[in-house]
Write a structure and sequence with these properties.
Blueprint (H helix, E strand, L loop, with lengths): L2 H7 L5 H12 L5 H15 L2 H14 L2 H27 L14 H4 L5 H15 L2 H13 L4 H28 L2
Helix pairs in contact: 1-2, 2-9, 3-4, 3-5, 3-7, 3-9, 5-7, 7-8, 7-9
């Protein structure tokens, strides 16, 4: 199970996605932990069993147990935060900003890995779920940590191609009646 297996599972019409998976992940300039933490966190956020199975298998080869758990934690906490903060924003009533979240988010303060890595993974998950508030917040935090825009851009590219693979495989599963 691996990135190659995932690429092989994509249908012919998704040739661009297949090629992008290979090039974006295979030639990424991100350090291994940042790359594979991003891959795993967004694979979880994409909610496609095949994508998650294949990419988690390969992520295990590149990440420590702590980093694996932190990437999973980023996906989990952002699944909650993206819904909460996006909803408050979309309601459009500033009074909601005065109400405390009262949601546990301690993992953000102590993720078990470098906080910049965790922030990058959180940003990538927020791209998948479309929470503009979280995207802006994590991007600002990363930029204050002197992370270059090119690195943030790279994580967004990873999120985009993993998501494209998940959408394609979901469509194939539904259309084939499986």
């Amino acid at each position: 199970m691996s990135l190659d297996a995932l690429r092989s599972a994509l249908p012919a019409y998704a040739k661009d996605t297949k090629l992008n998976l290979g090039s974006v992940i295979g030639t990424s300039t991100l350090p291994k932990q940042r790359l594979w933490g991003t891959v795993l966190a967004v694979a979880i956020a994409c909610r496609n069993e095949q994508v998650l199975r294949e990419l988690e298998s390969e992520a295990r080869e590149h990440l420590s147990e702590e980093a694996l758990n932190a990437a999973k934690a980023a996906a989990s906490i952002m699944a909650m935060n993206n819904i909460y903060y996006r909803s408050k924003h979309l309601i459009g009533d500033a009074e909601y900003d005065n109400l405390p979240a009262r949601l546990r988010m301690q993992v953000i303060g102590n993720p078990g890995v470098d906080k910049v890595d965790f922030e990058l993974w959180s940003l990538a998950v927020s791209a998948i779920t479309g929470c503009g508030v979280c995207l802006e917040s994590h991007e600002k935090t990363l930029r204050k940590s002197d992370l270059p825009r090119e690195t943030i851009h790279e994580a967004l590219r990873v999120a985009a191609v993993v998501h494209a693979a998940a959408v394609t495989l979901d469509a194939e599963r539904v259309l084939s009646g499986v």
